Amino acid sequence: MSILVIGSFMMDFVARTSRVPKRGETVIGNHFARYPGGKGANQAVAAARLGGDVTMVGTVGNDSFGNEMIAILEQEGICTKYISKSKTAATGAGLITIDENGDNQIIVVPGANLEFSPKNIKTLEELIRAADLLILQLEINISTVETCVEYAKSAQVPILLNPAPAQSLSIDLLKKITLLTPNETEAELLTGISTEDITGAEMAVARLLDQGVSQVVMTLGEKGVIIGNRSEIRHLSGYGVQSVDTVAAGDAFNGALAVALIHGKSLEAAVQFAQAAGALATTKSGAIPSLPTLEAVSSFLDLQ
After folding, report:
1. What's the CA gap between 285 and 98, in Å, rounded?
2. Which residues of this UniProt protein bind K(+) (predicted)?
3. Binding residue per annotation — 250?
4. Which of 151, 202, 223, 231 is a good FRET partner for 89, with 20 to 30 A between their CA atoms?
5. pTM, rounded to two decimals
6. Is 10 annotated as a binding residue?
7. pLDDT, tens digit, for every residue of 242-290?
8. Which residues are designated catalytic?
9. Domains of the chain, with CATH numbers?
10. What is the pLDDT of residues 147-181, one digit of tens each?
11. Has 183 been labeled as part of a binding site?
């Protein structure tokens, strides 16, 4: 059962500080580190560590960071033969500030990720058709995402779209998505409905279902998730952990969700498995370094 991830690569530069600076203000940080990441790469590694058979597609720069990203994925057992290198753009970068509560603010500089175009997808039609599940995010060109969706939809390949970073999406695109996994901010942008409380979040999920999405899983951080399909909309509580760094927690969730679904778990059971992976990711620093193994997730669930 194969998972195809088409998406982004980012080298993350992470600064820790007691609080995020206000406009025009300089604050003193207490730690700096560099971590490999990017939503696409994160989700690919998350799925691979949890037992998924994963192929990753996208573009990195022809530089040391790009080489490092490919090497890391290969170490995780991910197929990287379809990853291309840009001749002109650098590997994407993420500038991340994390406060003492573990909350983060992120600036993404896409770089080579934006050179991955619909033209590239046309050469990968058979690869998409052969997948059992396609995972997409929004750190590559939206036209490329739309082309991927068209190919997958025509081949009846299920599509998991994590609509991050937040941006508006067409109704035509949403109608073709099998499973949409927004967080509160992304769902609010897509629907115009406030998601500050559970009632509002449930209303936003209902709106997305009305727009044609087959299934929605909205992540609410420590408040849990809202799951919705044609028959029901439900709130599931989250797991309590001591959070250190929330970077890549959503990516851990999406990778885990994909693996659980492809192995035949119900949506609710898959979400609970994904919640455990996401919670564990917050207990370690960095993006890819924080992503848990199947053994870790299984042990965590045994203790709940």
Report:
1. 10
2. 245, 247, 281, 284, 286, 290
3. yes
4. 151
5. 0.93
6. yes
7. 888 788 999 999 999 999 999 999 999 999 999 999 999 999 988 899 9
8. 251
9. 2-10+38-91+112-302 (3.40.1190.20)
10. 999 999 999 999 999 999 999 999 999 999 999 99
11. yes
Structure-block tokens of residue 104: 């983060």
What does the alpha-carbon distance between residue 17 and residue 19 come to, in Å, rounded to a whole number? 5
Here the tokens at position 159 are 């599509």
Nearest by Cα to 10 from 145, 107, 146, 151? 107
Per DSSP, what are the bridge partners of residue 96?
A: 14, 106
Could you tell me which residues are beta bridge partners of residue 233?
228
Q: Which residues make beta-bridge pairs with 181?
A: none
